[in-house]
Q: What sequence folds into this?
């Protein structure tokens, strides 16, 4: 393709450093870039859409005069919908990228992630899409090591495509003295958040509750995104609308010529057989 | 089990007729019922969670003195988290039910559904969970035909369990002169919304945009939830965190003694092979 068209969104909002880095990197690929991103942070919005309220959409100059950009009052999924059906109309982007999220979206976090919901919404629309996240939650997260990896993934996506019906969940380790070990195709680790609520009293003596959680990786597999990130790999998980796409993993492995991780049967999510632990719950 | 404990939530808010019907039906099963539901409508919230804001949780008497009920300022997923970790603490519910949603959550709607995100959040917590939805969007939706089917599903779930790592997406056709044909295990139909934006000017001459869409079923399979609903069946789809759980369908079919739908290979979502249409996107 001559000059690819890349649509950019995110969930941290149009002024977040993560999206500024993503726009800079995809412009460096020679792409024409259109941005439609939330006008305020939308972390944890999952696949929310706006129903019963209209959306605002305003031109933005935060990326300078050469980037067509809009801020939208909706969720990340809304941004992709209004980008495709209102801003771009009949022009299909060659790639949709979302992020770079401030914080990991590996394993079960994919479900809560606005970054990934933008990518998955694009996949539902039949567009190739990638969500990028960095394992660093700070507003002042260090993005200085990400260029090579974001570029490499985008180039692969533009040159070879992405399995139909999937969006890629790409997580990049936090910057450290260890060099990034490379890209690694993974499955979504089985994990959960162990929640606790911190209950306090407001000045009017009414209680309020802060959600806080500890991340629990329940998966000892060496084929998961959590394992890859712990080894300082960039994890690449193809996600279906049925999230982890095992078949898509195989396809991507062939088309991109990246090794397929060895599936550890023992480490797979539990798939009990009738008569085994497939009995009444909480016996 | 002697007297099961059932946790109830929804996304239409604690005062919606759908949840009143659900509470009434599960009480009819002899269950002890605890409700934690949003204090306002949360339709389309997907798997959103509340980050950066605390939650309010207040006792509610909307279901009368015999039902322990709370309204929560958060999303459906938040409600399940605060129910499990704060309200119920060490008591695990025998079943989590969400709904009854005013409007279908079949096919791709599962992704946008707050009703199903409550059920999926429960499944992540290792709890058996079912989301119920009715194909009738109105606030005054007619629930007069649902009792038998909601009871039947809940009884199956309590007696035989639900495949580990899944939540059931149960959709009930709108009431009509046709009798309900029965329960039917299904896979999630491949579908999408064809969006359009209706752009208007506010009194200050600033544009705003209403999201509106037409539902497109792209799937001709007779093993899908959309097909089942069109034939006036109650559709039952086990959803993984990787949404449609084909293996869970088989397990449920055996454990509940319901026939497994015949999978039409031709009707399955596209899974192109390398070299076929697995090429660069938008060639």
A:
């Amino acid at each position: 393709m001559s000059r690819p068209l890349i649509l950019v969104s995110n969930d941290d909002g149009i002024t977040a450093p993560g999206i500024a880095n993503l726009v800079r990197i995809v412009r460096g690929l020679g792409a024409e870039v259109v941005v439609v991103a939330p006008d305020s942070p939308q972390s944890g919005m999952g696949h929310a859409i706006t129903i019963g309220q209209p959306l605002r959409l305003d031109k933005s100059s935060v990326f300078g005069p050469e980037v067509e950009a809009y801020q939208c009052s909706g969720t990340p999924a809304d941004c992709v919908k209004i980008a495709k059906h209102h801003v771009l109309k009949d022009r299909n982007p060659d790639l949709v990228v979302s992020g770079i999220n401030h914080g990991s979206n590996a394993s079960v976090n994919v479900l809560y992630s606005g970054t990934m919901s933008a990518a998955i919404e694009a996949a539902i629309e039949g567009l190739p899409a990638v969500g990028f996240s960095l394992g660093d939650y700070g507003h002042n997260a260090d993005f200085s090591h990400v260029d090579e990896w974001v570029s490499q993934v985008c180039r692969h996506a533009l040159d070879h495509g992405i399995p139909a019906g999937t969006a890629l969940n790409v997580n990049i380790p936090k910057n450290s003295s260890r060099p990034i070990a490379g890209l690694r195709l993974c499955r979504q680790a089985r994990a959960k958040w162990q929640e606790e609520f911190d209950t306090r009293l407001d000045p009017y003596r009414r209680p309020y509750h802060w959600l806080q959680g500890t991340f629990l990786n329940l998966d000892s597999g060496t084929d998961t995104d959590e394992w890859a990130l712990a080894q300082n790999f960039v994890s690449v998980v193809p996600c279906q609308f049925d999230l982890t796409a095992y078949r898509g993993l195989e396809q991507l492995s062939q088309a991109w010529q990246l090794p397929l991780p060895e599936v550890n049967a023992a480490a797979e999510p539990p798939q009990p057989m009738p008569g085994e632990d497939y009995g009444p719950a909480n016996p």
